[in-house]
Structure formats: C-alpha cells, structure tokens
Protein 1
Amino acid sequence: MKHYLILAGPVALAVSLFLPSAAAAQVAAGTVPNTFDRPATAQPAPRTPPQPVQAAPAAAAPAMSPTPANAASEEALRTIIAGLQAGTPDYALMTDDLATQMRAQAPTILPLMQGLGAIQSLDFVGSRSGADMFVVNFANAETEWIVGMEEGGKVAALLFRPAQPAAAAPSATQ
C-alpha cells in the first residue's frame, strides 16, 4: 500500500523553497557587480530632507446658536443620565440604532456613569448643526454632552466626553 503526502498552501511553498531543484542546480550565466566590495564611482545625489506636510486650512465651524435646537433635549438628557446611573437606561427615548449601540456599550458605560456621582449642574452651552451641547458637572467629574434628536422626538445621537479646559471650550458666540 502506497502513502501519499499532499502539501497545500504555505507548507507546499516552504517545502519547494528548501528542496533542491534543477533550476537551482544550474550555474548562472552572468555576474552582478558587488557594490559592497568596491567604492562607488559616482556620488549619489544629496537627499533633501522631507518637508512637513502643510495641512489644509480647516473650514470654520459653524457658529453655535445660543438657543437649543430641540427644546426637549435637556429633559431627555437628564432622563437618560438618571437611567444610566440607575443601571436601567430608558431605551424607548432613543432611536433603534442608538438603543442598539447603547446596549452593546452598556457593560462599559454603566459603571462609568455610576462612578461620576450625582449631577451637580447641567448647563446648555449652545447648538450647532441640529445638536445641542451641554456641560454636566457631576460630583466626581465635569463632562460635555452632545444630544441630537430626530423629528419624532427620539434621541438619535448621544456623545459625551470629559469637559475641555475653559480656554479650549467652545463658546456660544463663536
């Protein structure tokens, strides 16, 4: 009984590289000069240092409006934060897409929100491009929140981050 070894994929390539072949046993017909043994006869052209890439000027961000884009955004934000801190977010306030994303991130977000402590203040900063921005001061941290609502009254976008230093924070007059 004969046994056959079938090689496929990377194994076949590796075996073919290590087994002698007829092509490898032949003598080369030409030579290539070894530039490591002799000094070069011509000096290579001097290399110019790379120039830093100039960034295109950033388009000016639209000015923030001093009025909320949606009058219900503050109440929705307060309700969502309270639900997150209680460990029972109210997904009915959110679009299906946002609710799906929040459910997926709940194991990370819920402990984080519970660690922030009680809300000390929640202040509207301004609105831009249909979304409202708030600064929320918790007992243990200051955060910035962006709330975007759809026409049906559900929260479609919800972002938060640590508050930016006062000098870098956007103002309502920009």
Protein 2
Amino acid sequence: MEGSGNTFRIFKTGKELKSGPHFDLSAYYHVNNIGIGLKFSNYSASSNGMLAVGSSYGNTRYVAVSTKDNITFFEPSIMYSNYNEPTKHKLILDAALGVISYTAKTGNVKGAGSNLGLGAGLGYQYVLSDHLFIGPKLSMTAGTLNKMKTSGITVDLGDEKERLTRVSLSGVVAFHF
C-alpha cells in the first residue's frame, strides 16, 4: 500500500490467526432421534507482527502491531443422534443456519460485521454414565462478510470479502437429561 511518498509493509503472514481457542454450547429438545435446539460457538485468535513504514527518502521505521480476532455464531440447530438406542456408542450429526459475527482489533482500530452463517458437525460419543457422554467432534463453520464497520464507517468489501470458514476437531463433553 502506498500513499504520499510513504510505503507500508506488514511483516507477518496471518498464520498465527489460523489457530486459537474455541468453544461451543448447545441445548436440544429430543423427539425420537431428532433434536431441535440452539447453538452458540465462539472462536478467537491473536497475532503479533511488525508494520514497516518506508518514506520516499529511504528511511524505514518499524512499529509493533497486535491483532485480535473473534468469530461468534448463534443459530437455531437441528441434530440427529441415536441417543435413544441401547448402545454405548452414539453418533451425532448436526446442522445450523444463523448469524455469524466477526470482530477484529488491530492496535486502536476495531472492525466488526455480521452475516448469515452455516454450521455442520459430525461427532462420536461414548456413554460414561446415564447422563454423561464424551468423544471427538469434527465441525465446520462458514460465512462471508460483505460489509464491515470500522470507526463508525461502514465499508463495502467488494471483491475483498472476509471469509470466516473454520474447520475444527474438538473434544466434547455432553450432559443428557
């Protein structure tokens, strides 16, 4: 990016923002093997890097920059499971459609936006007791931001849309009532 004889370069790739903690919280009402409910998920990541500012005189100054990203997803959800069958091995398939929101804070600049998002998951759970199950889950969350609000100004992202797709492998603890 260039402007007024100055050149700006960021010395980081964003690889640091590809991993970070996440959690999901959901509640379902079951009728036979189908569950209807609500789901909330949150993902966050942060990164540190250097911003290089070069002037037309050949001088370069380096400034430390930190970025914090947060993606939240709140949605109605439908789930299939074999919870009612007499086996200790449970299979869970879920799908959701709802609001995905994104916030990013770099230095003192904060950007935010939201749009329609999609979530899907496949999990296995082993029954430890009548009410406690554990196991792994593979899930995907996807959405795209067309607009973001930064410093009170809404920006149309055009061809530079922000893709919020995330795939995760996690451990699940489920309480069945």
Protein 3
Amino acid sequence: MSSAKVLIVLEGEKPEENTLARLQRAFSEELADLSEDLVEYVYSSHIYGLYNKLKEDDGFSDVIEVLKELYPDDEALQNTNREDISQVYLFFDLDIHKQPIEKSCDQLNELVQFFDNETENGKLFLSYPMAEAINICDVENGLMSDDRKLFCIDKCVNDGFKHFVDDLNRDSQTICRANCRENWLIISKANYEKAKWLIHLTSDELFSVFDRMQQDTILQHQQALIKQDNVVATLSAFPFFLLEYLGAGKIRKIVEINH
C-alpha cells in the first residue's frame, strides 16, 4: 500500500467527516486504501472563499499551498508537502442562494472544470443543495417522492434545508439512514436513479449510463432547473464520490450481488 496521503477538503466540520467515515466502514474492503493514517481532512469555510483565493493574481495556484496559507494553524496541513498527497477530493454544498444565481453558476462551472482530476488540482463533488441530502432517502421511494424530489432555492436561506431534513428525519419512519452497507447501497442507487432522471436518460438501463453521471453534466442540468424554476434536484455528493473512486464496473457488481 502506498504511503501517499489522500487529502479531503470539507465544507463545515464534523458532519461531513462522519458521513465519509460511515461510507468507509460500509465498504471497508473496497475503500481499504482510505484508512485513517492515509486520509487527512481540512475544513474550509465555503467554496467561494477557496475559489477567490485560488483565483488571485490572475491565475490558479496549487490547492494545497493555498489551503496551507488559508489555515496557518492547522499543524497537520502545515507539515504536509505537495508530494505527500496522491489524491485530493473536495466536498462542498451548492451555496447558490448566497449571491446572484448567474454569478454563482458561472463560478461553479469554472470550479467544476478546474477541479476535475483528483491527482492534479483535485476532484470536486457537490451536494444539492447541501450535504444533508444524504439523509433524505426513503426506503421504498428513494429520492423521487414529491416531498423530497426538488427543493426551492429560496427556502435554502437561514438553514432552511437543514431544518427540512431535521423535520423529515424526526417525523418519518421510512428514512434510509447511511449507517450500514445495505443502506448505503440503497441510497447510492437512489442518487444514481435521480441523476439519470435529471439528465433525461429515461430509456436507458441505469448501469449503462454511469459514464454520463459526471459532475459537470449534473451541474449543467441542475442549473437549468435553478434558472428556469428556482428549484434544485436533491442529490448527495457521496454516492458519486463512491462511483468515481471504485468505478462503474465495481459499483454495478456490488449492487447486483446485494440485490
């Protein structure tokens, strides 16, 4: 096993790290190279702060050097050199309600295009509208129920989506919680089915269109919904990280074995 580390940049703090830890436990064999001693977490304030810092001086700097500059008190990060890192993954929320939609969309397009390779600048995964989207999957209906299929952008302000998720989890007895392998498979498949619906692949078998579920394609179709209807299709970043990390063939095999 390589001694090179994986750097994971998270928005917020513990909830996202806990979600990734649960994902790792659920797929302990498949994600064995994401062991504790090989994963380093950095908590970023929000995507636009990192974006603006990277774009200073009319060009992009190395993401690790910029993070070290942004977080001088993070001892582990300060002791990390670029050559210590083999892969960089970034997980952020949509955050599109915090500034004009057109500006947000333009910036997100640039970010997804720039952060498109985990071995270079890093690979960005977006949650729509927030990381809490991992907690709204229904055991039977996935993410396609009327109450959780789409979410209004205007209702995202003042932690509106977090409150919605909290209420849903308190009142619903059918929430599929991301706490075991079987549930992660249900949640992941629901997100893939939702992405298939979002990008209008209604006639194709799910596993044959995994290669279409790229972050830039998902963002493109999300932006159409946002601009036309002021809503976003609820999707979690974590199943798409799993798809990217393990590959379509392995995901298909895992799902078919367990169902």
Protein 4
Amino acid sequence: MMPKTDHGAPDMQATESRFRWCWGNGHVMAELAAIDPVVAIELSTMAACLGRIHARGEAVAAAAPASVTVQPSKIAVISVSGPLTPRGSWFGSSLAGIASQATRAADDPDVAAIVGDVDSPGGTVHGTAEAAAAFAYAASKKPVIACVNTLAASAAYWIASQASEIVMTPSADVGSIGAMAMHVDYSKALEEAGINVTMIRSEQSPRKNEAHPFGPLSDEARAYVQGRINDAGADFIKAVAGGRRVSQAKVREEFGQGRMFGAKEAISRGMADRVATLDQVIAGLVANAPAARTATRRRSALAFE
C-alpha cells in the first residue's frame, strides 16, 4: 500500500523517498513488489532502464583504448634566489618550497623539463640537503637544467650540482663549496661600555650555548663547532661529486676549495657545462621538446600513470 496523508490521500513525498531508497537495495524492492503490484511495475521499469544504461557504459569502457598518447607540454621554472633558508623570507627562497616544487614538477606528466633559475649567495645547512635531493630526484626522471643567472654560491651550488646540466650566463659565478660558521666576541666592546654579561646554565647542561658572543670561544667549543662544520663540508663535497659525476678527490682539489669562479674557469674545471642565458635555455628546450610518449590511462578517473 502507498503511504497516506492524514486526509487519506497518497503521500507522494514519502513514496518518492521510498523509491529513492530502493535503487541499491534489491531486497527492499522485492518487499515493495510483494506489497503493492503497482509499485512493483514502476520499480521494475526503472530498474530495467538503469540496467540498460549500466550495460551501455560498460560497453563504452571496454571499447576505449587501454592507453593514449600524451605530449608533455610544460617547462617548470623554479626560482632559487637570495639567501636560502628552510622557510624562506622576503629576501630569499624557501628551501622547503624548492624541494616541494622540484618533486611536484618531477611527478607531473605534463612537465617535459625543469629549469632552475639560480641567483643566490647560499644559505643555511639546514634544508639544503633536502632541496638538493629533490633536484636529484627530478633529474632522474626528466631533464633538469640549473641556469646560474647569475650566482650559484655555497648552498645554491649544492642544489645546482644535482641538475642534469649546469648552464651559466656569461657574467655568472659559481663555487664557494664548503661550510662555515662565524663567532663574534663582543666581550671587550661590552666591557668598555660598562656591560657585564653573566651566563647561567642548568647544571645538567654546562655546554649549552657555548659559542655565545659575549666572551671568547673556548678550545673545547671551537673543536666541537669545527667538527660540525667539517661534517657539513664533507656532505657538500660528496653531494657535488655525485651530482657532477666526478670523484670526491676532484671536487676537493679542483673545485676551488671554497673559491668562486666565472663561467670560463668553472667550465674548464668541470663545475659547469656551458654558457647560455635563461631565455636561450628555455628556447632550446622548447625547440627540442621530447617526442610523444604513451601512458596508461585509468578509465575510471581518466588519469595517467
């Protein structure tokens, strides 16, 4: 029986709700068919219609090609500029952002190549290894060109060295391989100003902030800082050697030991590959776009693997 209102008339809203509830529930449809033959006729007609629609969709999906030809059509440009810090600033790029952009571009099937637009004096040790690793990952999947436009020093060169190719603009400089820390002793200036600074540490942490600027650096503190700097420098050299496909000995002996070089000298030493402007690099990539390739299509989502 169809639901009735208080006045005895059929309650169409309740009936419609029951019909909607029946689409995916064959058991409920069978119960309704047993109660009211009129409802059974309407439901069976609708079910047959839905069945034909579903069958037609399956036939179209079966006839669709398993793969389609796609042509990567984009060139991703990643800015590596200014002082590099983990989260970035008004003055320089974010190392975390560089890593994220490189990874996304590497995994994007529409991106044919990646260009790093590099103009940076370097930055912090923290975050640099991760950004460089992202460039290396991208270079393992597609062409990555680091265009030094016009400075790749220290951390910026670490990142650039992981690209497939390093291109320098005519007036560019690269290098400053290595790590450093700076300690400033203000104790005499403070003494002359009549200022005395007393450091009070928790007894469990006598070495906390041992490299503070309010007094001379102790021998023990100097040795500790030197060890940390040596470790970072060794990681730098290892990464550059891997990225440039040369020995670590070559990097230590021939890549300047911390010095900077112009384009001609850098190329002769193996620190870079050729001279070109950013516009020339991009134009070259456009002119030599890769041939179309085949990618598997997921029919359900129309996405590419």
